[in-house]
Write a structure and sequence with these properties.
By secondary structure, the chain is an alpha+beta fold. The protein has three domains: 166 residues, Jelly Rolls, CATH 2.60.120.10; 73 residues, no CATH class; 53 residues. The chain contains ten helices and twelve strands. The strands form two sheets. It has a seven-stranded antiparallel β-sheet, with helices on both faces. The chain has a five-stranded antiparallel β-sheet with strand order 2-5-10-7-8. Strand 7 and strand 8 form a beta hairpin. The chain is globular and about 70 Å long. The chain starts with a strand and ends in an 11-residue tail after the last helix. This is Helix-turn-helix domain-containing protein. Keywords: DNA-binding, Transcription, Transcription regulation. It comes from Trinickia dinghuensis.
Length: 312
């Protein structure tokens, strides 16, 4: 997976810096242009986050063969995308090679990802429902209530954590988690309210948790993500979240993290220090930021990983 960050002071240079997109940016408001673009690329996955400080007219063509989704970060926007007004938080969508026109506000921070169209359709069908696939043909999907703000803030923090520790992109487990977390968070914003509410009983929530635990136990390598569980269980991220909160009183993210932390602890308890360092054990379970790992480990087990007794 390729990762890069660039700070730029020219709108034209910025438009050329975003790989995979055929586009032209034109600065509309006066003043020194400043921007930052972060990019992550992998097979069948294009991601960028960009921030600009001036009004810009963006025109061009979306990546070929892909469905693309964008979401404002940190704050709501007022803009025009594909001739539609964007007022607040909304998903902005483009199809395979679709020509686009985006008039941004004076300053904007947003992310966008592109994945193969068939993959996106399959994920939306599985996680949200067959009837939601048609939403991919729309240009703008307003986000109801506080969900847009909450998801925006969470994703901004998530991307920032990876940006502060770019070495994690050398780890296959961390790369998969990056892709799946962003994909699942965006897909979960598709408005299921349009298709009617589903009243799930507590027994159904418990069954979802039971099946999730079985999937995790059958794949004890720590690579499972929230998106993996949603696809396997054919349920939305919100349903998975509600199930774990009501049944186990933890979020699915916390549950998955505890599985990985316990996996590291088992490794430490069953190996000699000379044959496996703490860092190597953590990396085997997808922890690549040792400071974060040590804090989470201590929070769960009441001791630092270096204090855990090793094999004798």
């Amino acid at each position: 997976m390729e990762f890069g960050v660039r700070a730029l002071t020219d709108v034209h240079d910025h438009s050329l810096a975003v790989s995979g997109w055929n586009q032209v940016y034109r600065q509309l408001s006066p003043g020194r242009f400043e921007s930052v673009v972060l990019q992550v690329q992998a097979p069948e996955f294009l991601f960028f986050r960009e921030s600009t400080n001036r009004r810009v007219a963006q025109t061009g063509d979306a990546p070929l063969g892909c469905a693309s989704i964008a979401l404002p970060l940190e704050q709501p926007i007022t803009a025009t995308f594909q001739g539609c007004r964007v007022d607040g938080y909304a998903l902005m969508l483009l199809g395979d090679g679709e020509e686009f026109r985006f008039y941004t506000p004076e300053s904007i921070d947003y992310l966008a990802l592109s994945v193969p169209t068939a993959k996106m359709q399959a994920l939306v069908s599985t996680v949200v429902g067959d009837e939601a696939v048609g939403l991919l043909d729309r240009s703008v999907l307003p986000i109801l209530g506080k969900r847009g703000e909450q998801t925006s803030v969470e994703l901004a923090r998530f991307v920032q954590a990876y940006q502060c520790n770019p070495d994690v992109f050398a780890n296959a487990v961390a790369c998969k988690r990056f892709q799946d977390e962003i994909l699942s968070a965006l897909i979960d914003l598709f408005d299921r309210e349009s298709f009617g509410k589903h009243d799930l009983t507590h027994a159904t929530y418990a069954e979802i948790v039971r099946r999730s635990e079985k999937i995790i136990q059958d794949n004890p390598d720590g690579e499972q993500t929230i998106l993996d569980l949603c696809v396997a269980l054919r349920c939305s991220r919100r349903t998975l979240q509600t199930s774990f909160q009501r049944v186990a009183n933890v979020s699915p993210v916390e549950y998955l993290r505890s599985v990985r932390l316990n996996g590291v602890r088992r490794l430490l308890r069953s190996t000699y220090h000379e044959e496996l360092t703490v860092g190597d054990a953590a990396a085997q379970w997808g922890f690549t930021h040792l400071g974060y790992f040590a804090r989470e480990y201590r929070s769960l087990f009441g001791e630092l990983p270096s204090q855990t007794p090793r094999a004798h």
